[in-house]
Amino acid sequence: MGTIYLIRHGQASFGSHRYDCLSALGEQQARVLGEALRQRGLRPDRVLAGGMQRHHQTAAHCLAAMALPPSVQEDRRWDEFDHEAIVAALQPRYRDPAALQADLAQAENPRRAFQALFQQALQRWMSGTHDGDYAESWPAFRARVEQALLSLRESLSRSQTALVFSSGGPISAVVRQQLMLGDAATLRLNAVLANAALTKLIYSERDLYLSTVNEHSHFEAAPALLTYR
């Protein structure tokens, strides 16, 4: 049996104009994950990442902690959905990021306020009744991720191990496919995927199986490192 680990990126820089970069905490999360994987003796045959900075930065810090070279193959099919476009489709004035930041600044808890807005925007995107409002619909996004996973599995030899540095959306889509979840359950899962957490798949010549979801035991000794956004 071979193994594919899907790794959510470390914490990004919420509230910053450089959101796609890891925060200092996100960098630390990636290093702690890498150390945990090194202690397991994990030696990947393939390392992939989506095309976003937070994917590549998470990979770099994780691989450094594993004492491995920063050799990463980019596959943009593992990119996250466009959360800014999805939010703007719900509230057109948020096409201007400054308008969103100004509204969030007025909230008692900006992170919680954004999460509530984001969940509402995702529900609209996933509903299937407004697909024409989006450059990439929810079905198209799922198909992209499913093709990325299929291509990876077909490229791996028997008993190989791959690491994929990606985001919560693609990982949720994979779990949805494996467990045949509905959209509501997928949305709930996406909300609780931890930064720098592992989702493990095992594969044979004929099939692919979900083994673990959202594993983050490497943060148990330092609970302050556990974040979801």
TrEMBL record:
<dbReference type="InterPro" id="IPR051021">
    <property type="entry name" value="Mito_Ser/Thr_phosphatase"/>
</dbReference>
<dbReference type="Pfam" id="PF00300">
    <property type="entry name" value="His_Phos_1"/>
</dbReference>
<keyword id="KW-0378">Hydrolase</keyword>
<dbReference type="GO" id="GO:0016787">
    <property type="term" value="F:hydrolase activity"/>
</dbReference>
<dbReference type="InterPro" id="IPR013078">
    <property type="entry name" value="His_Pase_superF_clade-1"/>
</dbReference>
<dbReference type="InterPro" id="IPR029033">
    <property type="entry name" value="His_PPase_superfam"/>
</dbReference>
<protein>
    <submittedName>
        <fullName>Broad specificity phosphatase PhoE</fullName>
    </submittedName>
</protein>
